[in-house]
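QA checklist item 7 of 12: single-chain prediction sanity check.
[x] sequence parsed
[x] length recorded as 282
[x] structure emitted
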Amino acid sequence: MVRICTDSCVDINKNQIEENNIAVFPLAVILNDKEYLDGVNITPKEIFDYVEKTGQLPKTAARSIEDFKHFFEDLLASGDEVVYMGISSKLSSAYSYACQAKEEIGSDKLFIADSKSLSTGIGLLVLYACQLAKSGLSGKEICEKIKLQADYNQASFVVDKLDYLYKGGRCSAMARFGANLLKIKPRLELVDGKIENTGKYMGKFNSVIYKYIDDMLRLHNKPRRELCFITHTCQDEDFVKDVVEYVKGKNIFDEVVSSVAGSTISCHCGENTLGILYLLEE
């Protein structure tokens, strides 16, 4: 058998994780020099409250090579092959640490793929890998297919305010001031494993999201139909439901699922971030 595993940046729903027996390696979040584990003992709301109270942005961190080794060794102990894909190698040192852990373990049953993505962009690949495992493919075959599919993965978001990106050093004070003053909402896309600003929208967040979705479906118009994620950090549940229904109304995808982004994504984007994510035909 093949066991699929990932890290806590995956952002897929709990039932999807349980139904597919996916092993999740929690990444680290640091608040006021104290380390927490994403999805274990820290929540996005606690992060938002901390930033509002202190004005300081939490930090995210990859776990150690030893932590990865323990994680992989526990999975390999069952005798299964193990396929791991986590946050993009260009966004975190986690991929490098996972590869070093694999070298030190020296197992020919452990396979690692670079997702070149984040959030449910990873999740889409993970769920695809689970399908491949159920169809009887080997760990090596699954890993090779994931590496190919990783280049055909539409993952993007619109950010309401640049406050978190500014605090994290990802935009200048002038850009932040101008964007917030003019109500500019940047569009961030994963391009070859890196986050790129590929567009911007002007107006209220709840209004521009629909234009953003139309743009992405037009620009990336060869989707795999099985699944689409609407992933967000929004508090307005009714708005998210409306967005999901809007995408369903396009009759493009077999399933459209909403997903709340975890602590890793929340640390960098803040509240009121929303994205549409889906795989593309190769």
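[x] summary fact logged: Residues 120-134 form the longest helix (15 residues).
[ ] second reviewer sign-off
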